[in-house]
Design goal:
Length: 388
């Protein structure tokens, strides 16, 4: 029997990492050690106090039933208190917050609530691929906003044609940015809000990395900017802030109408986050945030060691002020896939080719700082031996 797959699957962009995956397996099978700086998944464990709270949550039979769809009140209150303390943003936990099974889930679902066939969604490139894919799944048309180094990886909104803006329903933004590590200015957010007001579209800001900044340069929330709550929402996550990628917990916050739309899609698709996980997430958000300070110190050291090494190698890179990524130019301007394959083949080091994040990521490679300092030093030594 053959069941024909839906067209939407064939509309997905090609999986660019297949060749890298194949080569990785080959290198591994040949007995060579693999060092992965490829995936943005923290190597550090979830802080112990969060794990302990989860354990008591698991033992409580009240948490064994279907969870509250939009998040237990304690978790939504904790999100609202965290936003107040961290960003001085006031959020009504009833109407302006919805829990998510990781921010990816919300990003994947939001177009279903707002996008019709023929509607445009403004998507950055290079970017986390889900913005474009969720747009396609909802029948919308992604319009690419190139993120260029000469613009510090902020989209130039003046270059979007008016006919596109008139058809736009949503705009995805992400700062601190994956993969470029760029940060946004308040000015940029203000301009984006003006565009959203003028052309009547919603802004979906993905803020997964706000807590991961360097040199004490604290990063803003989009919702801090006057007018943001009238036009947009922010996706956030416990994944990177508390090393909880495996727990699947995040949220969306902001404009109540947009939150309501997303909540309605979710109610009909999923049944919320396991409540023991929500209890643990509540503990994390209400904590004194010392674990986050500790984590920043670790990434700062890793970042500094990698940047010193890249300087030694004579590589060009965009100096990250936030995130745990380093966005470097491919050596000798090689196509990014070729550079990544060469590195993997000769050293066993996995890096991500920039083109995997979109065509404007070509000629860059992304390092994820998800290994410890001695291994980063080993990476630099190995890179010295690659003949590009
Ligand atoms: N947004 C960005 C920019 C990411 O890089 C990621 C994960 O790597 C996510 C969202 C998804 O995070 P999660 O679903 O774990 O909250």
């Amino acid at each position: 029997m053959h069941i024909k797959k839906a067209k939407r699957l064939s509309q997905l962009p090609p999986y660019l990492f297949a060749e890298i995956d194949r080569l990785k397996k080959e290198v591994q099978d040949s007995g060579k050690k693999i060092i992965s700086l490829g995936i943005g998944d923290p190597d550090l464990p979830t802080p112990e106090f969060i794990v302990t709270r989860a354990k008591t949550g698991v033992s409580n039979p009240a948490n064994h039933q279907y969870p509250s769809y939009r998040g237990i009140p304690a978790f939504r209150n904790a999100i609202s208190r965290w936003y107040k303390k961290r960003f001085n943003v006031t959020l009504n936990p009833e109407k302006e917050v919805v829990s998510l099974i990781g921010s990816k889930e919300g990003i994947a679902h939001i177009p279903l609530a707002f996008v019709e066939k023929g509607d445009v969604v403004l998507c950055p490139d290079p970017a986390y691929p889900v913005y474009k894919i969720s747009t396609i799944f909802a029948g919308g048309t992604p319009y690419i906003m190139p993120l260029l180094e000469k613009n510090k990886f902020l989209p130039d909104l003046t270059r979007i044609p008016k006919r596109i803006l008139r058809k736009t329903k949503l705009m995805f933004l992400n700062y601190p940015n994956n993969p470029t590590s760029a940060v946004a200015t308040e000015e940029f957010f203000k301009t984006a809000i003006e565009y959203a007001q003028k052309y009547n579209f919603a802004i979906c800001h993905d803020a997964a990395y706000t807590e991961l900044y360097y040199n004490d340069k604290i990063q803003p929330s989009f919702l801090e900017i006057p007018g943001a709550n009238e036009v947009g929402i922010e996706f956030h996550s416990l994944s990177k802030t508390y090393n909880m990628t495996g727990w699947r917990i995040g949220w969306a916050a902001g404009n109540p109408e947009i939150i309501e739309g997303l909540g309605r899609i979710k109610e009909n698709i999923d049944s919320g986050i396991f409540q023991a996980v929500q209890v643990a997430g509540t503990e994390a958000l209400l904590s004194n945030q010392d674990s986050v300070k500790e984590m920043r110190k670790i990434y700062q050291e890793r970042r500094d060691v990698l940047l010193d090494g890249l300087d030694e190698l004579g590589w060009n890179y965009f100096e990250p002020q936030a995130t745990f990524y380093v966005w470097a130019h491919s050596p000798k301007g090689l196509p990014s896939k070729e550079a990544a394959m060469k590195i993997l083949n000769s050293t066993g080091i996995v890096v991500t080719p920039g083109v995997g994040f979109g065509k404007y990521g070509e000629n860059y490679i992304r390092f994820a700082l998800t290994v410890d300092v001695p291994i980063i030093k080993e990476v630099i030594e190995k890179l010295k031996g690659v003949n590009f």
